[in-house]
Design a protein that fits this description.
The chain is built from three helices and two strands. It is mainly alpha-helical. Strands 1-2 form a two-stranded antiparallel sheet.
C-alpha cells in the first residue's frame, strides 16, 4: 500500500512512505516487529472501522446521497 498526502494541491508519496518505513525500522521493538504488510493491514482495518462507524450514524437520506457518488 502506498500512502499519500496532499499539501497545497500537490500529491506527495515518497515522504509519507519513507516516514512509515523509518518508523517501523526504528521502533521495531516497541511495534512488536511489525512488517510493512502487517502495518498496512492494521491501517486498512482501522480505516474500515472508521468508515463503517460513520456510515452507521448516517440517516437514510444521507446514505442515499452517498450512494449517488459511487
Amino acid at each position: 500500500m502506498d500512502y499519500r498526502i496532499i499539501m497545497n494541491g500537490q500529491e506527495e508519496t515518497e515522504a509519507p512512505n519513507k516516514a512509515i518505513l523509518d518508523m517501523i525500522s526504528r521502533y521495531s521493538r516497541q511495534l512488536y516487529g511489525f512488517t510493512k504488510s502487517e502495518f498496512d493491514s492494521i491501517v486498512e482495518y482501522d480505516l474500515l472501522n472508521i468508515i463503517s462507524y460513520f456510515y452507521s450514524k448516517m440517516n437514510a437520506v444521507q446514505k442515499k446521497n452517498n450512494m449517488q457518488f459511487r
